[in-house]
Amino acid sequence: MSDPTRSYEPKIIAVANQKGGVGKTTTTINLGAALAELGRRVLIVDLDPQGNASTGLGIEPDDRTFTTYELLLEEIELKKVILDTSQRGLKIIPATVDLSSADMELIANEKRSFLLHDALRQPAMEGFAFDFILIDCPPSLNLLTVNAMVAAHSVLVPLQSEFFALEGLSQLMLSVREVRQTANPELRIEGVVLTMFDGRNNLSSLVEKDARDNLGDLVFKTRIPRNVRVSEAPSFAMPVLSYDPTSKGASAYRDLAKELMKNNVRKAA
Ligand code: ADP
Ligand code: MG
């Protein structure tokens, strides 16, 4: 439900999969950049203690004085923790390894599952007028990921086109169901996106068939191809959309952004 007293209500999407190396961070950065290219104002929340999204967007360790850790566990002025990136329209709340202790520190906190939800809905957030908030989750179904799912409207699942890809999915869906039953009944699945897809590889096609047979419309039509430019971009501290705008990877992420926006119009109607 949109609130008529608010001019902008960001759509909050958790990018989650408890498997590491499936393309969560890559998808968060590049989908964020693609939405920003389309004129949307995007915030990335780096919720992984590894801080790969922060590094991949060029946030130096020295500039990470205030991070998602402070956002969750302390009172912090938003303008101190929301940083610009080199990409117009794309901002980030960075993370450092400090966040790895948050999981433990939160256990005794009564509001432990709602900290990100509340932080992203504080009144000062309205001043930033974000259209999208993308949360880059850690490779685990821990309390940080639960915070992301409680804060989010939907979960976007990157699925690596390789063997056993679907196996972890049922566990992820179980977590989504649990969050729905407890803290966030409205949580939806935004979609499953096939990443590192290789059309010449039979296995990729088998995983795709398996995913579409089992999940139907939940699987995005857009597939993200395996593309070396995508994997090079983070070491140049930029999204592949800036690093190599005409690469296959960049154009796939642009397609994904358009598909996501189209789906959202349909869902809103
Ligand atoms: P996660 O955040 O799920 O752990 P990453 O986004 O960090 O996964 O991706 C894991 C590795 O795969 C990284 O080295 C990344 O550069 C690489 N990678 C991700 N997507 C692609 C792609 N489409 N083509 C080539 N390499 C990719
Ligand atoms: Mg990651």
UniProtKB/TrEMBL annotation:
Domain AAA: 11-189
PANTHER family named in the record: P-LOOP CONTAINING NUCLEOSIDE TRIPHOSPHATE HYDROLASE (PTHR13696), PARA FAMILY PROTEIN CT_582 (PTHR13696:SF52)
Name of this protein: ParA family protein
Cited Gene3D superfamilies: P-loop containing nucleotide triphosphate hydrolases
